[in-house]
Design a protein that fits this description.
about 35% helix; Beta-galactosidase, Chain A, domain 5; five-stranded antiparallel β-sheet; single chain; about 650 residues; Glycosyltransferase; eight-stranded antiparallel β-sheet; about 20% strand; 17 helices; alpha+beta
Length: about 650
């Protein structure tokens, strides 16, 4: 090798190292400490801190009177309609609590009224209308005495809300508040931090997946960034809080952007964190949106909640069509990323409430094409959470979507005992559903149906027995699943999972392989074994009853259909039931549910199910051959060959 060539290679290597270093910001405790020190030693930053002390942060104020004018009008109407000076506020004087569904509902109303205080401050800042300043003061006058009389003692969900919304109101109304009013606001933040911040930090250090503690910590970090320099204690409190928060962002997923608690909590938790992340960037100059998990979160959201989806995916709250929330949080999240996928996604969303804080305070959306980005695949694996999203075409709102889960997080927290389960959506309709409703955490329905394996499209045995939920029945990651194979091609996708561990010793083999032939055929292979003979069961949950059709069953919905053929080496029995036992405790009507259980007629130490679901019943049905040592499934021009060790497409 010549000297010149060696020099060139050395230069290229150095350039690569410099590029990699530049692309990986430092979020270490030392870097965060230095960022705090720089703010402390630099010139004082004015308010609003959310605008980096500027009057208009990259056109957010200008947007309020132009493209966001409808959102501003909606916010103003809402504040006038719910003014505490002209409506019944008796619910605000009830003691906050979360011990049952009634007290929880009342607390949510109180928290919304608190948020209205911060919204009033923003409305004043954007319009300079004194009515909103008076409304802010009226709301503060209701909450302040009860907070200060208790020294902000209470549950973290309450203390964090008091600190956060008083801080936001302080930030936007700062120049209009007299000194004694500013002191009153910072005294509340101080009282709430004194009451619970230290214990919250300890709780997160002990268990980063303590969701209440983690999100409480985030709200306190945001509040303290707002009063940094205005409240002497803020700097010292921020040091451990910020380091703990950044080190554990996010405890529910890895560098692929996954969120194990499900799509509903991915939206709720990230949506409620956006302004906190903005403060980290604008006050401390910490590029938090480049942190690996957060940098990939938009991709996870786009693939698991693609435009036109009829429901969420996995975990608590996923069963509801949350179109407004998906659009509102989705647009707000994507506005913070300069990437083609984000531009495409936000342009597919509509029906959102544009009056909420995270919408009005989002960066102005950059221009971008509304076409599916070139080079993005239609299917993706998110290995950190054990999810696979298989789509016939991401660009098509009428796509067929298959979601599969076999997660290392198991049934922990808001996840369910549904390892190796799947759901199927097609043409904007739910075909194979996750059943049950999220009435509230640890309700009788949540505990005895919703969380259980039998509520999902997964394997049970001996009358609905399923995966282990841990000693207290609330879920655990000790009994988990894992993805063992993923292959995405233009013609078909394959994903496989091993849920043996999830059954806690009740099964010695629990493997499931999905082969999705695009655009509309799904083959599901389950290979099972146990040292004890089991009556194996294959569960399929639907929103309408199955009717007999040929050798299988048909589900017919308005605009969508599914033909299902469930087979095994021996004859199966089929049992269908509707509704739920116990029923969820919610006031809204419960949608239809039909549980279809295909069972071995006699117990067996091994089990094999081969199921073919066609989302286009006009296609030719499958041909199966359960041969000795090898099972073959002919689907169209392809054959799936199943052996003990492998599943191959030929």
């Amino acid at each position: 090798m010549t000297a010149w060539l060696r020099l060139l290679l050395a230069f290229c290597l150095l350039a690569k190292v410099i590029s990699a270093t530049a692309a990986e910001p430092d979020f270490s405790p030392a870097a965060l400490t230095a960022a705090l020190a720089a703010v402390k030693q630099g010139p004082p930053m004015g308010h609003p801190r959310l605008f980096k002390g500027q009057a208009d942060f990259a056109g957010i104020v200008a947007a309020a009177s132009s493209e966001r004018a409808p959102g501003m009008k909606a916010l103003e109407d809402f504040l006038h309609r719910t003014s505490v000076r002209s409506t019944d506020t008796s619910f605000l004087r009830k003691a906050p609590g979360t011990e049952n569904i009634a007290s929880l509902s009342n607390w949510f109303k109180q928290e919304r009224a608190l948020e209205g205080m911060a919204e009033s401050a923003l409305a004043w800042y954007l319009t300079r209308d004194a009515w909103y300043l008076d409304e802010l003061r009226a709301r503060a006058a209701i909450f302040s005495p009860q907070i200060m009389s208790s020294r902000c003692k209470g549950e973290p969900t309450q203390t964090r809300a008091y600190a956060w919304y008083f801080a936001l109101a302080y930030d936007f109304a700062f120049t209009a508040l007299a000194q004694d009013e500013r002191t009153r606001f910072t005294d509340i933040i101080k009282a709430c931090a004194n009451a619970s911040l230290n214990s919250i930090v300890k709780d997160v250090v002990a268990n980063p997946r303590n969701g209440v503690a983690f999100h409480s910590l985030g709200k306190f970090v945001g509040a303290l960034l707002i009063v940094l320099g205005d409240m002497p204690e803020a700097h010292d409190w921020l040091m451990p809080a910020l380091q703990t928060y950044a080190a554990n962002l996010s405890p529910w997923g890895g560098i692929d952007g996954g969120y194990s608690n499900g799509t509903s909590y991915a939206h709720w938790d990230s949506g409620e964190s956006l302004l906190i992340w903005d403060l980290l960037e604008r006050v401390l100059a910490v590029p938090i949106y480049q942190k690996p998990w957060l940098a990939e979160l938009p991709r996870f959201i786009a693939y698991t909640l693609p435009p036109g989806t009829p429901a969420g995916v996995f975990g608590d709250g996923a069963e509801i069509n949350r179109k407004e929330e998906w659009a509102r949080f989705g647009k707000a999240l994507m506005s913070r990323y300069d990437m083609p996928l984000a531009r495409w996604y936000e342009k597919q969303l509509f029906g959102d409430d544009p009056s909420r804080l995270h919408a009005l305070l989002s960066p102005r959306l950059p221009a971008g094409a509304a076409v599916w980005p070139f080079g993005e695949p239609d299917s993706r694996l998110f290995p950190s959470v054990g999810w696979a999203a298989l789509h016939s075409s991401m660009a098509d709102r009428s796509r067929v979507s298959v979601y599969f889960k076999s997660s290392p997080f198991g049934s922990l927290n808001h996840s369910h005992a549904d390892q190796n389960s799947f759901v199927v959506y097609a043409h904007g309709r739910v075909l194979a559903m996750d059943s049950g409703y999220y009435d509230y955490y640890n309700s009788p329905h949540w505990r005895n149906w919703y969380k259980q394996t039998r509520a999902h499209n997964a394997i049970t045995f001996d009358g609905g027995k399923g995966q282990n939920l841990g000693e207290n029945g609330l879920g655990t990651n000790a009994y988990s699943g894992k993805i063992t194979q993923f292959l995405a091609t233009s013609e078909y996708d394959i994903v496989a999972g091993d849920a043996t561990s999830a059954y806690g010793g009740q099964a010695s083999i629990a493997k499931r392989t999905l082969v999705f032939f695009k655009p509309a055929t799904l083959v599901v292979i389950d290979q099972l074994a146990s040292t004890t003979p089991r009556q194996w069961e294959w569960n399929l949950h639907t929103t309408a009853p199955l009717t007999l059709k040929g050798q299988g069953y048909k589900l017919a919905l308005d605009g969508a259909e599914m033909c299902a053929q469930v087979s095994a080496p021996e004859l199966l029995s089929m049992q269908a039931e509707s509704g739920y036992i116990p029923m969820p405790q919610i006031s809204t009507p419960v949608g239809p549910h039909y549980g279809n259980r295909f069972s071995y007629r006699t117990p067996n130490v091994s089990g094999l199910f081969v199921s073919v679901l066609r989302m286009d019943c006009s296609t030719v049905g499958p041909a199966l051959d359960f041969g000795a040592g090898e099972t073959r499934v002919n689907v169209g021009f392809r054959t799936v060959v199943i052996t003990t060790d492998n599943v191959v497409v030929k």
